[in-house]
Write a structure and sequence with these properties.
about 425 residues; elongated; four-stranded antiparallel sheet; about 70% helix; alpha+beta; two-stranded parallel ribbon
């Protein structure tokens, strides 16, 4: 019997553990979203791709080593020559036939080291490094977007769950009102019509509950898909709203906040890349200097021969000078375009930061207003109950007061969740 109880206890423990693991906090949801989101994964792969490109370009700094071997066999010699004997010897010696390169072997290995290439190699490495940095910034940008969407889904579920609590409270109040009206009807103080009004209100609240519960189901599915979780017991962990702080606690000057934004850093990188592109266009018109060494073997003259040599090459792109000035001018104009685009985008970011700040301030004031409205609505409901019990006011007034309280409670929930999402958006646009 003890073994049976122990088995049941262990089974219940595992069951309870499984349930607890299906409840996720906001931070856990964010972590899972970043781990499982396809866009984030692809962004990280872009970083690795750009790193491989950087390593590939870096190899251009090293000598270019090449090797070649040739074995040739022909039906006739590639070089044939008949040498006539001097007249004094021609009477008793035939002409000599010479045949070369009928069978031949040759091999060589060489290494060429670029010494000066107009900055092409150095600037190519700089451009590759910028490519890595750009993709790393894009990962951060993608993570910000994923986090913001996670918060949106999370607070959407919170809002609906809080509305469910409001519905619970309103239903409890309506049950009390129903009991009071039923007693009044039985006593002949009021008509059965008032009882029907209460029941209609209960049915309306029940209908609202169905809509809210369906909204919770849909929102959970969206959040599950977003964070990559497939669990029928999925739920979020939430006890109460964080303390609603004044937006002043988070304020940042738009001019300085722009510098902290990932988007701003991406724009700076685009300007850096444009400057390097211009330098590379200039470098294409410079001479290219390289030094090298080579080892060669052949038996072209029927003798095994091998030797080594060192050499230097200079390549002057004379023909490129004709169009080079236009290519440089083109890159200068592109640089101006990039700088103009960057400046305009940063100015628009400042406008966006100010707009997000205004929205956050408005959301905070809406929370304060909703708190005051709840105090007024609760007092109005209390007075309406007293008046109805005293026979001074009608049931319609009482039900209207109860509806007003439900609306203000929902408005406070929406105001608080809206504040959280607006705060998240503001912190993102100021680079925090």
């Amino acid at each position: 019997m003890k073994k049976i109880f122990l088995f049941i206890y262990i089974s219940l423990s595992f069951s309870m553990t499984g349930v607890s693991q299906s409840i996720y906090s906001l931070e856990e949801c964010k972590k899972l979203a970043l781990e499982n989101n396809t866009k984030v994964k692809n962004s990280m792969l872009d970083v690795e791709i750009s790193k491989q490109t950087q390593k590939e370009v870096f190899t251009k700094l090293f000598p270019n080593v090449s090797a070649m071997g040739v074995i040739a066999k022909s039906n006739e010699g590639m070089i044939q020559k008949q040498i006539q004997m001097p007249p004094i010897l021609s009477s008793f010696l035939d002409p000599i036939n010479i045949e070369l390169f009928k069978n031949a072997k040759t091999a060589n290995i060489s290494a060429i080291q670029p010494v000066f290439a107009g900055g092409q190699i150095v600037n190519g490495n700089k451009l590759a490094s910028i490519g890595v940095e750009v993709n790393q910034l894009k990962v951060k940008l993608t993570e910000n977007e994923v986090n913001q969407l996670t918060e949106k889904y999370f607070w959407q579920i919170v809002s609906l769950k809080e509305k469910t609590k409001t519905i619970d409270a309103i239903e409890a109040q309506l049950i009390e009102i129903h009991k009071t009206v039923k007693v009044a009807v039985q006593a002949g103080i009021t008509t059965n019509n008032d009882l029907l009004k209460v029941e209609l209100k209960q049915q309306s609240v029940e209908s609202a509950r169905l809509k809210v519960e369906n909204g919770i189901k849909v929102s959970k599915i969206l959040l599950e898909q977003h964070i990559g979780v497939r669990d029928s017991l999925f739920d979020i962990s939430f006890s109460e709203f964080p303390l609603i702080l004044s937006p002043v606690e988070f304020y940042a000057s738009p001019n300085s906040a722009v510098l902290n934004r990932t988007e701003s850093q991406l724009l700076d990188k685009s300007v850096e890349a444009a400057i390097i592109q211009k330098d590379m266009a200039i470098g294409k018109n410079y001479p290219v200097l390289a030094v090298g060494a080579s080892y060669i073997y052949h038996d072209l003259l029927k003798n095994n021969t091998d030797f080594g040599m060192v050499f230097a090459t200079v390549s002057v792109p004379i023909s490129s000078w004709w169009g080079g000035s236009h290519a440089i001018k083109r890159e200068e104009l592109k640089l101006q375009q990039t700088q103009n685009t960057s400046q305009n985008a940063k100015e628009m970011m400042q406008v966006e930061i100010q707009a997000k700040w205004n929205e956050l301030e408005e959301a905070y004031k809406q929370v304060l207003i909703s708190e005051k409205s709840i105090i007024s609505a609760k007092e109005n409901l209390r007075i309406s109950k007293d008046y109805y019990n005293a026979g001074i006011s009608s049931l319609s007034d009482l039900l209207e007061a109860q509806t007003s309280l439900q609306n203000t409670l929902d408005q406070r929930t929406e105001a608080k969740t809206n504040y959280q999402t607006k705060l998240s958006s503001y912190l993102q646009v100021i680079g925090k």
